[in-house]
Structures are given as structure tokens and as C-alpha cells.
Amino acid sequence: MKKSIFVFALLFGLTVQAQKKWTLKECVVYALENNISIKQSQLDLESTDIEKLTAIGNFVPSLSASSSVSENTGLSFNPVTNNAQTTTFLSATGRINVGYTLFNGLRNLRQLQRAELSKLASQYRLDKMADDISLFVANNYLQVILNKANLEVLLSQNEVTQEQITRTQELVDAGVLPRGDLLEIEATNANEQQSIVAAQNSIQISLISLAQLLQIEDYASFDVEDEGYDIIEGSISELSAEEIIAKAKEARNEVKIAKANVDLAEKDLQIAKGAYWPTLSAFFGYDTRYTNATSFNQEINPDNPISVRPIGTVQNTGEVVVGEFPNTILVERGADPFIDQLYQNDGIGYGLSLNIPILNGFSTKANVQRNKINVERTKFNLEQAELDLESTVYQAYVDAKGSLKAYEAAEKALESQELAYEYAKERYDVGLTNAFDFSQSKLRYDNAKINANRAKYDYIFKLKVLELYFGIPATELKF
Fold first, then answer.
1. Residue 72 lies in a domain
2. Residues 301 and 426 in one domain
3. Which of these, 331, 323, 329, lies nearest to 304 by C-alpha position?
4. Given pLDDT bands bounded at 50, 70 and 90, which one contains residue 2?
């Protein structure tokens, strides 16, 4: 017996552990880590690092190296001696070039500044995406909680109906009540059973919708924590609309994104104006050559270094004048060693290059004008974003206030319907009212409970929306 109890407890513990119930904060954090839209925005943020790397690279000198090897047959110019010769020889050349832009209208500096602004704008867009996803998760989460609360109302009231069926059956059997009252209660029970099934389906559908939003595929075991979500007194709704709107303009990413777009447009305009300025560049080059071709040199004949040849005659006497000349012969010489030729045949070149823009078909002017228009457009977008945010926050403020009044009214209506239901139940128990009137009173009481639940969670959600506009992070929202 003890062994059976132990096995049951173990299995029950494993089942409870397997059926994890997610809190709202866990859902929001998980969504921010796994949502596809969030991941895409993170990739956009990472791509701005590439843009910044490219901008930094504009400050680094350009360096290139090239080489070539060829074999020539026939009449060709020797790359070392520059003499034409008919033969077959192997030649190689190597070259290194370095270039650096000294000035180009500060466009390199402004490209780097633009890359930093672009990264900031991408971060704002990522933050806005996170806020939107968090709000969407909270809405779906509270919908699950509302559906569960409605199911609890239906189940608890159906228990009362079951008790009434038993009691009415006894009274009918005793001849105190007509059988029609029993049939009325049983019909009410059937309707409530149907409503319970519909409520259970609503819970499953809302859970699946939330699981899909979180990218969770295990729908069967997914569930949420359905306790501890109450209205907290002293909330942000006690602040004025002007205070919330002012805070939203400082904290919300919609305005930050619009401001960043204005900064980007102004930076693009500065870059476009930089094309009016001259571009000054410096360059340096080093090259060398090698060939394995043989060559013929004229050298002094060691066997007969001097030759005597007539160079003219004396006009008066006719005597022949002779002179001594070096006696040279052609000597074939092999190619110098590879390393020696690299040093013997190398050379360098360096200098400055100035490019002054004079006329390029008005393309620079058109680009500047285009960017000026874009600056004005982004300023209008910023103004519109501030107006839209002000309108949205004010609407959210009014919605929160209205939902609070609706919740308070629903609570009062629930109190009234509960008193009416208790009164009707007492009258029904002593036979002073029929089953139909009692069922109608109970139905009104059930609807009042459901309406109170709906008003409660609607107010909680709209309150959380207002807190997000106030700048409270989604993961720090309190319930």
C-alpha cells in the first residue's frame, strides 16, 4: 500500500513538473528571444555594423599588389634591356601600389557619422518591435486568463444548477413542485454544459494562438499561470494625460525613430554637398622586373685590345693620320640571378593627385536638391509622429479611464445581480417562484460575472498599454 502511494506521488510530481505554467513575464521574455520579427530586426542591427566597418575602411589606405609571368617567343622587347631580340625567354614583373585620400570634402568623416546614426536608428526600431511584440503577447495572455475566468464562472454556477436539479427532483417526487420546473432546470443545465464546452474550446484556441506567437510547437502541454492578475491601486492612470504624453515623447521609440531619420537625412545632405569640393589623393608605387633572356655585350678583345685605324690625312703633305681604338667583340652573357635582378631593376613612383569637379551634368546639384527635399520630408514625418503619438496616448488614456468606469459599473451590476439571484434562490427554495424565473435570474447573474471578468481584464490590458507609453519596459510591468 505504501509502495502504491509512493508510485502515485512520484507520477503526480512528474506530471506537475511536465505541465509547466508560464507567467506573463516568462512569455514576454521568451517571445523577445525567439520571435522571428525580433530576430529579423536584430539582423538589421547587425548589418549596421557592416556599414560602420565600411565607413572606417575609408580612412585606411588602399593597398594592392600585382605580378605577371610570361614566356615570349620570336621578336620581342626584353623588359630589362628594352632591346628587341628574337629568342625565347621567360620574364616576370611585380608591382605594389598604395593610395590614400587626403581630402574629399569630409565625406569619409560624415559617412562614419552616418553609420553610427544608422545603428542608433536600427536599435530604436528593434526596441519598438520588442514593445509591439510584448504588447501583443500581453493581449493574448490576458485573453487566455479571461477565458479561464469565464470557465470558472460557468463551472461554479453549473454546480449550483446540479444541486438545484437534485433538490427539484426530490420536490417533484414529493409532489411539491410540478414536473415542468424540473424540465426547466434540466434545460438550463444543458445550456450551461454547452457553454462550458464552448468556453473550454475558447481556452484551447487562445492557448494555441499564444503558443504560435511564442514559436512553441508543443500545444498540448502549453499552459499559463492564471492567478495573481489583479488591479493594482495607485496606478499610472492617476496621472494627467499631459504628464503621460510628455513622458511618451521622451521614451517612445516612434519619436526616436523619426528624429533619427531626420539626423540621417541631414547627414546625407552633408555628404552630397561634399561632392562640390576637390578630392586630393596621394599615391606610391614600387615595381621590379626579371628575365632569364641572355644578352650580347661589347667587350674589349683580350687577345687584341687595340686596333690602329686611319682617321684622316694632312692637307698639305698628304700624310695619313692614324689612331688607336679599342678592339671590341660581342660576348653572350647569361641572365643575372633572380634576387640580383629584383634589386637592379626596381623603381618607385609617388605623387599627389587633385581632382577638381567643374561640370558633371548637374548630377551633384540634383543630388543635393534631392537630399534637401528628403530632409524636409523627414521633418514633416517627425512632426506627424509626435502628433500621432500624442493622439494615440491620449486615446489610450481615455480608453483606460473609460475601461475603469466600465469595470466599476460591471462590479456594481454584479453586486446587484448577486443580490437578485440570492433573493430569487430563496424564493425558489420555498416555492414562491417558478423554475423559469429562477433560471432567468441565474442567467443574468452568470452574464454579470462574465461581464465583470471581461471589464477587469480589459482595464488591466489598457492600463498596461498606458504604462508602456509612459516608458515602463514590458518585462517590468506589474499586475
1. no
2. no
3. 329
4. very low
